[in-house]
Amino acid sequence: MSKSMALVVVLYFVVFCGESYGELKVGFYKGKCGVTNVEDVVQNVVETWFFTRKDMNIAALLLRMQFHDCFVKGCDASILLDGLTSEKTAGPNRSVKGYDLIDAIKEALEAECKGLVSCADIISMATRDAVLLGGGKWYDVETGREDGNVSSASNVDLPGASISVSDSIKAFGKKKLSPTDMVYLLGGHTVGIAHCSLFQDRIYNFNNTGGPDPTMSQWLLSELKKKCPRVSLFDNIYPLDVKTPSFVDNSFFQEIQKGNGVLKIDQQIALDELTKDIVGDIVNEPDFFTKFGEAMVKLGKVEVLTDGQGEVRTSCRVVNKKPFNFGVLN
After folding, report:
1. E strand or H helix at 4
2. Lowest mean pLDDT among 16-20, 73-77, 143-147, 187-191
3. Residues ≥6 apart with Cβ < 8 Å to 247
4. What is the largest CA-CA distance in the chain?
């Protein structure tokens, strides 16, 4: 083969074969599904879901799903896999919801371009669209992820509601996320809710003192006592943003500065020397939505699979190839 011919072959390989794999990028699917715009398909399904079901919790559900997926073996959609001991069965994930929405998006995309769009990318795109519907602003999602084929409850090690700020910073740092990223991502609690069992000790027996957490405002303490009585047959829920619980905005940070943080970690980031200045900056940040979007993009890069390290599932609930890894059932 002549040198000129060899160069043509190499360029063909780089331009055409290399186009399908590599680092994440905005517009990864552009032109790969004929005239169909992949991101439009995702957005249309999310909007239809939102408006027909009047599901105001959609942003909270998908923000939580993306965080819980990316923090365990990276953003590989392993949380979506069914199995007797898959990630879904782990304690922190039993209340994760939104799987049927992801299924609906996957079905719509498979009808347009079979085997093209990964479930991991669907989670990231759908979350962005849900944030937009929740009052947030558009941010460009990088795509090109592949799906993993390992999902085991034993791998789930998520930061808990009572984790210290320093330990939380370490946990996020292991994912190459900065303290600022961590604080912005905890701002996803602007549309979240929590069960009373996660913060009951802060109301009645903080640090085994027999009393409430002294950092909690008297107003919030009174409210939580009404919603979460000491003895109850039900594990009630309470919004994590006490001011605008249905909207993506920075009021969550304003409220934790007033002592209205429901979870211990939420309250502590407003008080701890390691993070309180970050919270203050966010409260005064005129472009919160852009910075929040940037943090979500960074979260979406955690330990992603590309370049044939994973696969593109045809169903988000099962892997394509056998043998299946432990914890995953077809």
Report:
1. helix 3-12
2. 16-20
3. 134, 135, 190, 191
4. 83
Of the candidates 284, 213, 277, which has an alpha carbon nearest to the alpha carbon of residue 254? 284
Catalytic residues: 68
Contact of 119 with 102, CB cutoff 8 Å? yes
The answer on pLDDT for 126 being more than 80 is yes
DSSP letters for 168-231: HHHHHHTTT--HHHHHHHHGGGGG-EEEGGGTHHHHH-GGGSSS--TTS-HHHHHHHHHHS-SS
Q: At what angle do helices 288-299 and 119-133 cross, to 10 degrees?
A: 170
Distance separating alpha carbons of residues 61 and 130, to the nearest angstrom: 9
Taking the C-alpha atoms of residue 299 and residue 286, their distance in angstroms, rounded to an integer, is: 22
Distances in Å between the alpha carbon of 314 and those of 37, 116, 266, 311? Answer: 19, 9, 38, 9
Ranking 22-31, 110-119, 211-220, 301-310 by mean pLDDT, the lowest is: 22-31
- Planar angle of CA 235, 123, 247, nearest 5 degrees: 55
Q: Which residues pair with 33 in a beta bridge?
A: 35
pLDDT tens for each residue of 140-156: 999 999 999 999 999 99
pTM (global) more than 0.85? yes
Q: In terms of DSSP H, where are the helices of 54-136?
A: 58-70, 99-112, 119-133
Burial 212-248 (b: 16+ CB within 10 A, else e): bbeebeeebbeebeeebeeeeeeebebbbbbebbebb
pLDDT category at 286 given cuts 50, 70, 90 is confident
Please check the confidence at residue 9 and state whether its pLDDT lies above 70.
Answer: no
Are 96 and 160 in contact by the 8 Å Cβ rule? The answer is no
Distance, in Å, from the CA atom of 153 to the CA atom of 90, rounded to the nearest integer, reads 5
